[in-house]
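Try it yourself: sequence plus tryptophan, in.
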Amino acid sequence: MFPDRILSGMRPTGKLHLGHYHGVLKNWVRLQRDYPCLFMVADLHALTTSYDDVSVIERSVWDMLVDWLAAGVDPEQAIIFIQSQVPEHAELHLLLSMVTPLSWLERVPTYKDQIEKLSHKDLGTYGFLGYPVLMTSDILLYRGNLVPVGEDQVPHVEITREIARRFNHLFGKEPNYQELAEAAIKKMPGKTGKQYAQLRTRYQQEGDAEALLAARALLAEVQNLSAADRERLFGYLEGGGKMILPESKPLLTEASRMPGLDGAKMSKSYGNTISLREDSESVTKKIRQMPTDPARVRRTDPGNPEKCPVWKLHEVYSDQPTRDWVVQGCTSAGIGCIECKQPVIEGVLAEQKPMFERAQRYLEDPALLRRIVDNGCERARALAADTMRDVRQAMGLNYK
Ligand code: TRP
Ligand code: SF4
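Structure, out:
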């Protein structure tokens, strides 16, 4: 009923690293070609955990936006915007909070996890408990039905679906639904209204599935119905109400676990990252200093790539002939580790090169970046306003 639309977001946590690129951004760049996409800087989500130090958020927002554009997120194809600049997120969050059972929020797995993990912070706040409601609002505000996320965020997309269902169930039936539907039938041209009513009766009383299909086809063809009336009549056929908010589903990013410098998953908290726009000297130095197979103490000792963090990077960056060269050279002590690392260094630098080039424009002309984001926020607000009109009306808050 609603067209496919993608919404995803990222909390501004500072400069991004290659783990973000391989895990998330590469996927966004692919998706933006195939779907209408909105990519959002989740600065309000950052506030739920960093409310005690807001100074870092703004800087991080701009750094992250440059990194997005550097990675190839394209403002010509996708809408790029900042959550807090579209106040409807806060409004929808408040309205959805009215119908979200506390127990749903308390049982979200990340809730207790995060409180324990970030024990140096006081996360016993109303805002932090509401994190999933805020995320639900982000998604439903644009009627996003597809949400590309990592495994850890799947429970949040599930709660989004549950809240949408509950909302539709509670508010999808307009109070005078039946009258409105009957009035819409009268507006149908010629005999079509009468045909619709007969088909509906046949379906509802006799369960005649063909009648349902015929009625749907009829509705799709009729010319002079308003969009709202048409939707009402589609719902009226099956006895249901209106679907105001869609049921979203996660688009799981294929688990591309980008290995870090120590072989563990690349993550800021492990201190094993290479940033997206790290300068080449630093990249070279970091890779040269990477640990290798601990059994390979001397140059003459053969090694085992399976026990070496450098090998994991070859799996990301090297072609088959290079990999064969590594396995052969390592296990026979034919190559040294510094030699083995060279193609990885080159692979990373080659990947970064176009990113530096794309970033350069925005670093030289910060006003350009601002214009792109202003434009994105404006387009996001227009879409948000549409949804909020329906939501307010459904909840009886439309005093017109
Ligand atoms: N919570 C997400 C994260 O930490 C970020 C986010 C906020 C998000 N709103 C969203 C992701 C909406 C997808 C859709 O990664
Ligand atoms: Fe690792 Fe390469 Fe050294 Fe083997 S040769 S231990 S794969 S860095």
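One thing you can check immediately is this: The longest strand covers residues 6-10.
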